[in-house]
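Researcher: Sequence recovery benchmark, item below. Answer with residues only.
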């Protein structure tokens, strides 16, 4: 039983790599070892496999099954469990800026427990974290609701005791053990890795593992109990059925050779638990956060020292330094980001998209490479009869008629190709055909012959001596059917099938194969001696009629959707488990420049550096296994791309997790949905394109807030430094600074509802910490110019130049600072001319008006004495209007220069 012993993955990763890289290498090694082990089992005769499993054809006893369950454990694979709500809540508050706000609130509370700033900062922290928690918790529950378990039991042959008669019982899938004999029928999920013992007309859908759209035939042996031809890929082994695949037709019995984590599927599932890779969103937020925090750590001590030296009151200087720290910190950043992402998730839900992880929305907008499978995304995920050709490659209705008769009259379970032929014939023609023919006998499909035949009676047609005329119609693999043909139909005339004609017919089939079509041959024979029963021996002396060619047709919307993604700067790469010919054909049909199609075997020969270069220049990868798909994604990310991966199969799960944004569909296998960040309720690239636009809008509004707030805050602090150095009193009280920030930040809560200019949405957008620093330093000081102008106006025009008149000075600067900070939002939110070429959404306009009115009202309000304000004289307001107009004009001029100089704005 050595083959059934659970294997521990070998530690094959180089010790110098990081933890995630080591884990990925170990998982790849585990999958490779599982494949090699299964390939070795495939090569053994069935009798030997039963011996190795310590099993027999009558099945395990119930007692033995219980012992094996105890030894091997339940038949389950590793899967990512949803975190407890308490854990999810705690993670919602894990943010560098939230940590800064908590620290500042603690300092303010230590200085003065009654300080209103403590409450303000606490509310910001609470709202931000709770908003993120609730949206992700709700989306997680929605994703869980999409899971529908097809079946939870399977049919297993067992015995009550040693001498008992074997019976077939239904057992839960997680209680299947190595050595069990599993009975398979159409519609069953394969519960574990099986070596087939017997089978009849078995067709297995392996798309979830291989990506191949058509079901594949499976059988116990090709030659009597001698095992299969050697293969290193267990998915391609004819006598193995792997966990996670399903039976589309036929019946079979198989012995379980691996369960749970030891299965081929289980070896991949280990990649779905544990730490997720850092996405572009995580990296970008971290860089921007620490950039702003470092900036604050430099500026605040400078303000503190300058204030302390010039004023002599170090306690007051400390309080003012804390207030400046709050002023420099975009304290609403966590809340605005969470609100932006939450609103994006809600908007995407209306477009039939479930967002499981909020950060994925921004990653979707930043995505510049989309790796997608073929089946169901570019194609309709169904088989259609594309062509019915004569031996010269021309359309021939007689070929369709004979193909239909073969598919229609067979009594076994029809496969997808049989159904495609039937679907091609309209209802009126079916009635006519049914009237002309009746069933006599059939020779069922089997794996060795790779064909099936029906024998029909031509109703109303008498043969020799008045006996009925029987016609045998055979349909199957081209080489098998051709080998039985002695004649062919040439434009309605039966002629001998010479060597040259045979080669010509073979070329027709091969040409269609090269175009990515699955080709079957159709042949007939009029039976000379009609009888009631027929055998395989009657399949001889056939006349080749022609060929049936099948494909999974491209979606009508695929080409337009791909053009839409290309217009938005997204390169689409097809990564499929299907073969090279099919992949190339489908990609060409939807307008993808195919170039050289790289098979998965080529990837295995490359190291990571070589794969990065190959992945960058390749558009189509075929016959890619799960390990290879994950490597392709990692290679593209290593080249600096933000990578999305769209897949729905077991073989896609590892790649979904490795991508910056994993995208799946509601019809996907559970393991793929668990690995995904986003779930599409429709497997359509058009839906995905709409999600990309929403992601870029979400990111754009977030960047607006960061750049507006960071540049304004920097300008304010620069102004404070100047004022602290030359004015003998505080230019603004700490409480005024906090109130100013609060009013401004509340006005920014409408940012998630703003619109983005069309040109901004055309390209992928990503975090640029250096760009934010450049913007902050370049644009921020503009406000300082007009702050200093306001200082001079208050000092010289209104004589607010003594300690007794400091309240007037502070009130005048407060109003100018708040209004300029609020109005400049409209200058910064677009690269166009504000109000003329681009207007903000009505929520942003409304909040702007509210903030301006609040700033003008506060010095005259009942709150003025408590906050230290003094009513401003009427003469102040013409000066204020002039300063604001000059500020907006200069900002627009600098913006024009900045865009020309750096080629970017937001």
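Model:
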């Amino acid at each position: 039983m050595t083959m059934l012993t659970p294997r521990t993955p070998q530690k094959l990763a180089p010790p110098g790599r990081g933890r995630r890289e080591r884990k990925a290498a170990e998982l790849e090694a585990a999958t490779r070892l599982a494949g090699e082990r299964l390939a070795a089992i495939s090569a053994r005769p069935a009798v030997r496999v039963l011996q190795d499993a310590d099993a027999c054809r009558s099945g395990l006893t119930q007692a033995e099954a219980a012992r094996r369950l105890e030894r091997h454990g339940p038949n389950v694979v590793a899967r990512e469990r949803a975190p407890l709500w308490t854990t999810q809540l705690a993670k919602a508050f894990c943010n560098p800026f939230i940590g800064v706000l908590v620290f500042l609130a603690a300092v303010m509370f230590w200085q003065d427990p009654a300080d209103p700033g403590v409450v303000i900062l606490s509310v910001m922290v609470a709202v931000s974290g709770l908003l993120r928690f609730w949206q992700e918790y709700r989306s997680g529950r929605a994703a869980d609701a999409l899971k529908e378990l097809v079946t939870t039991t399977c049919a297993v042959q067992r015995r009550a005791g040693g001498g008992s008669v074997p019976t077939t019982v239904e057992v839960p899938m997680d209680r299947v053990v190595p050595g069990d004999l599993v009975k398979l029928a159409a519609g069953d999920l394969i519960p574990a890795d099986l070596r087939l013992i017997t089978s009849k007309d078995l067709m297995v859908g392996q798309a979830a593992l291989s990506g191949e759209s058509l079901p594949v035939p499976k059988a116990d042996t090709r030659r009597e109990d001698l095992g299969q031809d050697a293969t290193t890929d267990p998915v391609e082994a004819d006598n193995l059925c792997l966990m996670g695949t399903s039976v589309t037709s036929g019946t079979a019995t198989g012995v379980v050779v691996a369960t749970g984590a030891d299965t081929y599927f289980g070896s991949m599932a280990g990649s779905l638990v544990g730490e997720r890779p850092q996405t572009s969103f995580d990296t970008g937020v971290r860089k921007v956060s620490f950039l702003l925090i470092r900036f604050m750590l430099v500026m605040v001590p400078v303000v503190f020292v300058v204030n302390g030296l010039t004023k002599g009151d170090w306690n007051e200087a400390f309080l003012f330094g804390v207030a400046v720290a709050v002023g420099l910190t975009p304290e609403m950043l966590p809340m605005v980001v969470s609100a932006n992402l939450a609103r994006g998730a809600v908007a995407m839900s209306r477009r039939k998209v479930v967002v499981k992880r909020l950060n994925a929305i921004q990653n979707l907008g930043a995505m510049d490479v989309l790796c997608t499978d073929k089946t169901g995304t570019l194609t309709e995920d169904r088989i259609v009869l594309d062509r019915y050709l004569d031996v010269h490659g021309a359309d021939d209705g007689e070929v369709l008629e004979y193909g239909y008769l073969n598919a229609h009259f067979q009594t076994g379970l029809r496969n997808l190709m049989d159904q495609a032929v039937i679907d091609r014939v309209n209802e009126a023609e079916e009635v006519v055909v049914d009237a002309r023919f009746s069933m006599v006998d059939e020779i069922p499909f089997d794996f060795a012959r790779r064909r099936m035949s029906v024998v029909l009676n031509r109703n109303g047609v008498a043969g020799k001596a008045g006996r009925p005329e029987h016609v045998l119609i055979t349909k199957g693999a081209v080489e098998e059917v051709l080998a039985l043909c002695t004649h062919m139909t040439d434009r309605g005339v039966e002629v001998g099938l010479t060597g040259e004609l045979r080669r010509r017919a073979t070329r027709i089939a091969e040409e269609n194969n090269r175009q990515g079509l699955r080709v079957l041959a159709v042949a007939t024979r009029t039976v000379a001696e009609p009888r009631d029963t027929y055998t395989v021996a009657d399949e001889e002396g056939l006349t080749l009629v022609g060929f049936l060619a099948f494909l999974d047709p491209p979606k009508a919307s695929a080409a337009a959707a791909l053009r839409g993604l290309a217009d938005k700067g997204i390169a689409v790469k097809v990564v499929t488990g299907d073969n090279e010919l099919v992949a190339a054909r489908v990609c060409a049909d939807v307008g993808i420049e195919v170039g050289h199609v790289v098979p998965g075997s080529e990837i295995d020969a490359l190291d990571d550096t070589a794969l990065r270069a190959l992945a960058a220049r390749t558009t189509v990868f075929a016959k890619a296994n799960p390990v290879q798909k994950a490597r392709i994604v990692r290679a593209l990310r290593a080249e600096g791309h933000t990578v999305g991966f769209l897949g729905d199969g077991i073989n896609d799960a590892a790649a979904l997790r490795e991508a910056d944004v994993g995208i799946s569909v509601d019809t996907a296998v559970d393991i793929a949905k668990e690995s995904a960040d986003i779930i599409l309720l429709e497997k359509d690239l058009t839906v995905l394109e709409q999600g990309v636009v929403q992601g870029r809008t979400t990111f754009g509004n977030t960047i607006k807030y960061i750049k507006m707030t960071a540049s304004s805050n920097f300008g304010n602090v620069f102004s404070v430094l100047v004022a602290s150095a030359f004015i003998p009193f505080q230019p603004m009280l700490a409480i005024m600074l906090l109130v100013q920030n609060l009013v401004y930040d509340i006005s920014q809560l409408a940012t998630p509802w703003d619109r983005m200019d069309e040109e901004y949405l055309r390209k992928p957008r990503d975090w640029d910490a250096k760009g934010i620093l450049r913007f902050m330093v370049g644009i921020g000081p503009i406000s300082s110019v007009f702050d200093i102008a306001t200082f001079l106006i208050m000092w010289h025009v209104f004589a607010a130049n003594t300690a007794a008149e400091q309240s007037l000075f502070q009130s005048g600067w407060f109003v100018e600072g708040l209004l300029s900070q609020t109005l400049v939002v409209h200058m910064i939110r677009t690269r166009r001319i504000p109000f003329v070429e681009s207007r903000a959404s009505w929520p942003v306009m409304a909040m702007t008006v509210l903030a301006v009115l609040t700033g003008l009202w506060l010095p005259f309000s009942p709150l003025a004495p408590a906050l230290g304000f003094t009513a401003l004289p009427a003469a102040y307001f013409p000066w204020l209007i002039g300063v604001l107009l000059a500020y907006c004009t200069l900002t627009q001029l600098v913006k024009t220069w900045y865009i020309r100089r750096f080629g970017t704005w937001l």
